[in-house]
Amino acid sequence: ATGPVTSDALAEKIHALNDGDGFYFYDAAAPLIDVNTIDMSKVYLKSRYDKGEAAYLNAPMTKQEFMDFHEALVNAEEAPLNS
Fold this sequence. Notes:
- The longest helix has 12 residues, at 63-74.
- The chain has helices at residues 8-17, 63-74, and strands at 44-46, 56-58.
- It is of the alpha+beta class.
- The chain has one domain.
- It has a two-stranded antiparallel sheet with strand order 1-2.
- Its cofactor is FAD.
- Pfam families: GIDA.
- This is FADH(2)-oxidizing methylenetetrahydrofolate--tRNA-(Uracil(54)-C(5))-methyltransferase TrmFO.
């Protein structure tokens, strides 16, 4: 994955090389988020590499949705660490 800085030209080339179907992956992030703030109708559980228990929440997003999410995440309130 090339991450959130993927140029439109590169994304279009990757899309074309893969018959233009089913590739909407921009980046993976694993922030800690209060489960009560997640619209569970928009996410799904999946195991990592299709092995073991489905323990990862996945949230499909368009590139713009991901960029908006990333911006909100970078500017979010931070929880203090307990030592």
